[in-house]
Amino acid sequence: MSQTQTNWSTLHREAFRGRRALVTGGAGFIGSHLTGALISVGASVSVVDDLSGTFGSWANLGGVDVTRVSASIQDADAVARAAEGCDYVFHLAALGSVPGSVAEPRRYQEVNVGGTLNVLEAARAAGVKRVMFAASSAAYGDSEVLPKVESMPVLPKSPYAANKVAGEALLRAYAGSYGLDTVSLRYFNIFGPNQNANSAYAAVIAAFAKAILSGQRPVVFGDGEQSRDFTYVDNAVHANLLAAASPTPLRGEVINVATGTRITVNELGQAMLKLLGRDDLTIDHRPERAGDVKHSLADISKAEHLLGYRPLVDFDDGLATTVRWYQQQMAG
Question: Which of 78, 85, 88, 18 minimizes the C-alpha distance to 48?
């Protein structure tokens, strides 16, 4: 759960007290932070997670009182049972790696797209108020136009990105066909505590932390001048809670969730080397990976207009908090 001092009760007050929510992937990285926030604002939460993903572990939830359902989103019956009586569904469960999807496209399609269909069917049958979907900035592909605006055409470069675009289309279709209110939140490079550094497909900040704390050079694929709109996890949680509580129907809208600023991977590497006191190490540049995008930067004006969203935690503060967490994990 969150390691920052974000006070969710102050921010979201009584919007969720007594409400029931389902979080798919709730034992994962973003899902565990969201689950903790929902509990802190008075909601009761069911979590569906098969713990097969890179980040899934019940330990991420600590001692939080939730209903734990050990099942895959491919298990339609388990998802349907978990959704019964819920007001909101937060759908975060997915296989989440671009390189992984390039290696196993069929598996990613079956889990990410088929699983999303199961979640929507469960939500429709349960009569939930709204479904929030974890979409991805990978939908924009490598268009050179910056910042990325939701009205731009989708240009997925990997099977993972295509899965997420398909999910967005399903959410919009269910809003149009069945009156199930839905929203797709396009995350831009979310980072923070609970992000697993022990995977071959670990996100860059997690991978950098593991390498540097082990006395190894951080590996950068490409020249390192690729840039990202790195977004601390509390910002993603905030966007989810704002979307769920919105008094206005969202009807399948796609909304960027980010900070509206970008940092190069080289700058990130240098910042982490400094924070960890390892200026003696240098960055290890390797060949570019298939499916990777060169630049990413979000226009967040739609999120501000529709949801009242503004970033809660900036990059520097989020990175410092995250680095401290990795230090504690490695020390332990």
Answer: 78
Per CATH, the architecture of 16-195+231-260+293-313 is what? 3-Layer(aba) Sandwich (3.40)
Quick one: tokens of 60? 């991420």
The pLDDT of residue 97 is: 87
Helices (H), 110-157: 115-126
Q: Find out whether 193 and 322 touch, Cβ atoms under 8 Å.
A: yes
Distance in angstroms (rounded) separating the CA atoms of residues 49 and 73: 8
Mean pLDDT of the chain: 94
Record the tokens describing residue 332, joined without a space: 């332990």
pLDDT band (50, 70, 90) for residue 56: confident
Supply the DSSP string of 7-42, one letter for each residue.
Answer: -HHHHHTTTTTT-EEEEETTTSHHHHHHHHHHHHTT
Q: Tell me which amino acid residue 208 is.
A: F
pLDDT of amino acid 2: 44
CA distances for 174 relative to 19, 123, 124, 143, angstroms: 23, 10, 8, 28
Which residues touch 174 (CB under 8 Å, ≥6 apart)?
A: 120, 124, 131, 180, 182, 252
Q: Which residues, 6 or more positions from 77, have their beta carbon under 8 angstroms from its beta carbon?
A: none
pTM above 0.85, yes or no: yes
Residue with the larger pLDDT of the pair 144 and 263: 263
Instruction: Give me 26's structure tokens.
Output: 């709730």
Are the CB atoms for 138 and 150 separated by under 8 Å? no
Q: For residue 201, is pLDDT > 70?
A: no
* Preceding peptide of 147 cis, ω within 30°: yes
Closest CA to 184 of 161, 162, 167, 207: 167
Please name the amino acid found at residue 14.
Answer: E
